[in-house]
Amino acid sequence: MLPQFDYVRPGSLSEAIEHGATDGAILHAGGIDLLGCLRDGVFTADKLVAIAHLAELRGIDETRDGGLRIGALTTLSEIAAHPLIGERYTVLSQGAGSAASPQLRNQGTIAGNLCQRPRCWYFRGDFHCLRKGGSMCYAVAGANQYHCIFGGDRCYIVHPSDTAPALVALDARVRIVGPSGQRVVPLDSFFVPPGQDIRRETILEPGDLVVEVLLPPPGMGLRSVYRKVRARGVWDFALAGAAAALTISDGRVTGGRLVLSGVAPIPWRAAEAERALAGSRLDAETIRRAAQACVADARPMTHNGYKVDLVRGVVEETLRSLA
Amino acid sequence: MKHYLPDPDQIPGEAQPQELPPWGETRVVGRSLSRVDGYELVSGTAVYTLDLTLPDMLHAVIVRCPHAHARVVRVETSRAEAMPGVRAVLTASTPGAEIPWYFGDDGPTSRLFDSHCRYAGEEVAAVAAETVHQAWDAARAIEVEYEVLPFVIDEAEALEADAPAVHEGGNLTEQREFARGDVEAAFAEADVVLGGTFRTPCELHAPLETFVSVARWDGDRLTVWDSTQGVFARQQELARYFRLPLTSVRVICPYVGGGFGAKLSTGKYTVIAALAARMTARPVKLAVTREDSFLSEGNRPANTIRLKAAAMRDGTLTALEGEFLGSVGAYPSGAVSPYLLLALYDCANARAATTEVYTNAGRARAFRAPAFPPCAWALEQTIDALAEEIGMDPVEFRLKNLATVLQLRDDLPYTSIGLRECIIEGAREFGWESARSRPQQDGHLRRGVGMAAGMWAYPGEPRATVFVKLFADGSVNLNMGASDIGTGTKTVMAMVVAEELGVPLEQIQIEHADTGTTQYAPASGGSQTVVVSSPAVRAAAVDVKGQLLEIAAAELERPAEGLVLRDGQVVPIDDEGAAVPLAELRGLRQRQNIVGVGRRHPHPEGKIALPFCAQFADVEVNTLTGEVRVARLLAAHDSGRVMSYLTYENQVFGGMAMGIGFGLTEDRVLDSQTGKMVNHNWHDYKIPTAKDVPLEQTCVPIDPHDTECNTTGAKGLGEPAHIPTAAAIANAVYHATGVRVHDAPITAMQMVRLLAETRGD
Amino acid sequence: MSEDSGKRQDSQRGISRRNFLGTMGAGTLGVAVSGRAAPAQGAVAVASDGTQPVTLRINGRRVDLRVEPRWTLLDVLRDHLELVGTKLGCARGECGACTVLVDGQAQYACMTLALEAEGHEITTVEGLMHGEELGAVQQAFVEEDAFQCGYCTPGQVVAAEGLLRGNPNPDLAEIQEGMSGNLCRCGAYDHIFKAVRRAAQLKQLGTG
Ligand SMILES: Cc1cc2nc3c(=O)[nH]c(=O)nc-3n(C[C@H](O)[C@H](O)[C@H](O)COP(=O)(O)OP(=O)(O)OC[C@H]3O[C@@H](n4cnc5c(N)ncnc54)[C@H](O)[C@@H]3O)c2cc1C
Ligand code: FES
Ligand code: FES
């Protein structure tokens, strides 16, 4: 049952920022993740600042440089169904299309998806864990089968989003406006790992609003794909996934990124694997080397050792599909 | 079925009612007809208990213990009591709340609010308020001080000498042994001996409609609308808790949104609702939240089964041995059963030992074929492995070893046994042989097929009374106590009436599942509803028919034997042109009603009627990721007569869908540090979705034309449909990959690891 | 597609620090605008323990009522408007029993605040009826026996309606995907898939 909160529907973006910056306020886009957290008492909010009606945060448009601008309130369904995104940025289309369920995709927004809180069952459950201001991470000695094998540092969440790895793979940026003005930030540096700050997952400050996601023009020979492995067919977060966006010319990888989902507190760039791929043909040997390189630094916990095998497998399958 | 449903052998005998001859060709029964309540279900006009609002109704919520094991030291309710809309706060010390709590027939083992909380989720207090929101706000304001105690959640650890005791007297609830023949000798002489330890997960019922009751008192009379599988069972239990005569307790449930066994026994929420209603003199609704229902409203406990089996190279199964361990949770219930091991195959030497323990976890409840799917998981994989070891096709190996009598009960004969046909017909329809020898494609996707057999053990509680009332215009009222839990009971029973009385389904009005206005029927569980109630319905309809034909015979001046009822008319067999509509019978108009009474006859003497099945699975395993996709399922069931084809097929597919969950995705997880459940919601406890079921499913009914089981020839279906599915999938996974998965569920998490180990990485 | 660069859009929107500060100030927070079912333009503010008058459009009818901020659309439908065809299964977006159409698209009413439903066209299972007659999807569900206990059914029916409005002729795989946001614990999925296919036919024939 939802606890009580105030509700404001600001008349403009600037009012939204003003409200968002007040103590105890929180933005409500589609509301899916937010209401879930409030219901479960993961955190409290004094005031919900509704932004869904702000028309300037909507829409998908081509930009002059040949890239794409996706308004913050664009729903995951809209992204998944957009022909241009499907054609040029397949990985994003697939990422958005593989999140949650059809109904949730009809309501959930891209900004909300990037800013959703972690799905760790201790964080979401009745456990006063480190990320909620408590003194311990229950995953360390507990049921950590869904937790991270990379980037854990006192807290071992995985990043829940399926669009984030796709967007990082595409080198997308987000435009943020807030009380201190606006800035455009590469998505690469949007997420905050626990080693940096254990209480939050993004760089957003109170009052900050993501207004749009900016995609660069697709590079020459860009081929991209998102492959997600989950415990059931739908309505489920990634056990592990691979978002690949590679430029391929004459059969050789000329650039691009490989980003993993479901295995780290932030979308995890497989830098070693990217190096292993650069300049190579996508033959069986290269693919195997790249897959192996992905897990070189893995630090599995008691119950998530399978993620090492799974990352290898899903990366191999993903790269094969691009070959 | 101990703890869950009455043992038919313990039911006092009754006078033998008239037996009816078996049906020959049927005109209505067996057809694919739309449900009689289909309109209500799709239009949203079916009112479930959760949908009910009574005038002046309050809403109650329960405060639960957040610790796996604790003692309540103090409950501070003053803040909550002062909150807006709050009308009652109930705790252990509330006058009237000192109600002893029973689990089954044995003495009380707890109380309504037990200060000794034995699992995370146990009821500690409750609030009734004007709105649900107010009730929750107040519940959150109740402060409870606990003394937190050491807990135990692991079944094996619960047996250790220094384990925390869930109850005084230790954690062992029951140990049993069964044996026949000489198992040691058989193992010694066998050509092949195999064994392994199998584990199955704790599975949650998770019906779509949560657990909910609405209670209202009129003076000393209690009426409860309850989301239940059996109104009479609920009535009896409520009468005991409130020390009322049965007639003062009325339980009603027109629609129930699923139960799967969890809604057979009375939950504390129902009694709390009734108590709060009495305290406030207002109707009270109490709906358990989804999350809380996962903690406290039942489960199928995890099983650990160590199996050993032996065979000769000629394909004779010579020995079976099993050790079963499971936890009932914090209170008396059932956890394991070796029935299937000891009954499915003809095996002269068999032995089983069972151990059941208490742990600090939610109590087990009956769950679709209690203890059978776990046993099938272990047994049917072992049989598969044995067949391979002696180089025999698993279908052939099973056919060679089928039981023909119930060895568990001194070789009691069956009224019919269609298992052989299930296996043969199923294999043929499935294309077993060609699928079995299908070459693997290159690449990382591997296909495989597997099968498993099963049977179900509960013959039903042979007592039910049904009224059928014919009105002067020829329309009919069917009055029966049985609940329709989604299996199509109402439709099936209306078809039985239509079969006998020749009235169209649209003219049959059904009154059911109301202890105040309908007659006794056992709870809809144990796959007994059709088996028990349809003969009673038939008998009542036949009673009406007899009276009606007597009237008609007199009016038409023809012998009653020469008349039949068809299309709302009395039709002389040798002169169809002289047919008379029922409404035109003077005798009927004079009486206005003809009432027929039907009672369920006893089970056949010296025989037992049980259903059998065989299921076949075709899977695809991704060897890179460990994902298992079920591509195709086929089920061949001997459940006797197909009463209604659509609901039969639906039930079979539904049982298999649940089997996919049991085999591939579902698993309750308790945190080892705190004993608390971490996945008490539908996202983290993963039941199958539309994307987890195969697009190709086939139902092959096998009807052995059983004329002895009962007067409609039907046997149970709901539970057998769930029993072998997971095992068939596991055998298919083995066939695809060569990996024998001992622990259910076969998640990608487990599979990717096992595949890597097999490859040696 | 517009040729706008991100930069130009920004300046159009006037989001620079200066501009931003310029539009701020006490009193910008407007009073509640209500009484009309259009996306609220002006500002709305409701205190947690207060109520706000809203106008909802449900099944083509205009409904005026007062709601608390925390009430979900599902709370309002079931507890205040007695439209109990929309079911409550989990109240957390994990079952689909509460599926309604919002501007023709399937959504979970339990995850939608009532205040957020303002200005949108809401359709519930009751709204798919033609008077006493079943709509095409409902008719198809009856014909194919696409339910057991029936509790998930209204949500399934509405989800199917949403699917078919977006894709009038889905293939089996599209049906499976489209219906994947609705749990059926009874496991009637196979018949549900058949019903959706049948419903597509019925709609094309113009029946129901
Ligand atoms: C059962 C379930 C399963 C799910 N499965 C998946 C899955 O498999 N994969 C996946 O990726 N996601 C999944 N999700 C998450 C879902 O996709 C997200 O919750 C959804 O996209 C969030 O969008 P929203 O608009 O509803 O966010 P909201 O709930 O409105 O917001 C989420 C957070 O983001 C903040 N926020 C929203 N918009 C902005 C903005 N413009 N600027 C700054 N901050 C903002 C909010 O303050 C809030 O903290 C699942 C959710 C549920 C409930
Ligand atoms: S009640 Fe809304 S999704 Fe379950
Ligand atoms: S019909 Fe019972 S849950 Fe779907």
UniProtKB/TrEMBL annotation, chain A:
It comes from the Bacteria. Residues 1-220 form the FAD-binding PCMH-type domain. GO terms for molecular function: FAD binding; oxidoreductase activity. InterPro entries: CO_DH_flav_C, CO_DH_flav_C_dom_sf, Diverse_Substr_Oxidored, FAD-bd_PCMH, FAD-bd_PCMH-like_sf, FAD-bd_PCMH_sub1, FAD-bd_PCMH_sub2, Mopterin_DH_FAD-bd. Keywords: FAD, Flavoprotein. Gene3D superfamilies: 3.30.465.10, CO dehydrogenase flavoprotein, C-terminal domain, Uridine Diphospho-n-acetylenolpyruvylglucosamine Reductase, domain 2. Pfam families: CO_deh_flav_C, FAD_binding_5. This is Xanthine dehydrogenase family protein subunit M.
UniProtKB/TrEMBL annotation, chain B:
It comes from the Bacteria. Keywords: Molybdenum, Oxidoreductase. SMART domains: Ald_Xan_dh_C. GO terms for molecular function: iron ion binding; oxidoreductase activity. Residues 1-22 are annotated as: Disordered. SUPFAM superfamilies: CO dehydrogenase molybdoprotein N-domain-like (SSF54665), Molybdenum cofactor-binding domain (SSF56003). The keyword Oxidoreductase applies. This is Xanthine dehydrogenase family protein molybdopterin-binding subunit.
TrEMBL record, chain C:
The keyword Iron applies. PROSITE patterns: 2FE2S_FER_1 (PS00197), 2FE2S_FER_2 (PS51085), TAT (PS51318). InterPro entries: 2Fe-2S-bd, 2Fe-2S-bd_dom_sf, 2Fe-2S_ferredoxin-like_sf, 2Fe-2S_ferredoxin-type, 2Fe2S_fd_BS, Beta-grasp_dom_sf, Diverse_Oxidoreductases, TAT_signal. Pfam families: Fer2, Fer2_2. Keywords: 2Fe-2S, Iron, Iron-sulfur, Metal-binding, Oxidoreductase. GO terms for molecular function: 2 iron, 2 sulfur cluster binding; metal ion binding; oxidoreductase activity. PANTHER family: OXIDOREDUCTASE WITH IRON-SULFUR SUBUNIT. This is (2Fe-2S)-binding protein. The lineage of its organism: Bacteria, Pseudomonadati, Gemmatimonadota, Gemmatimonadia, Candidatus Palauibacterales.
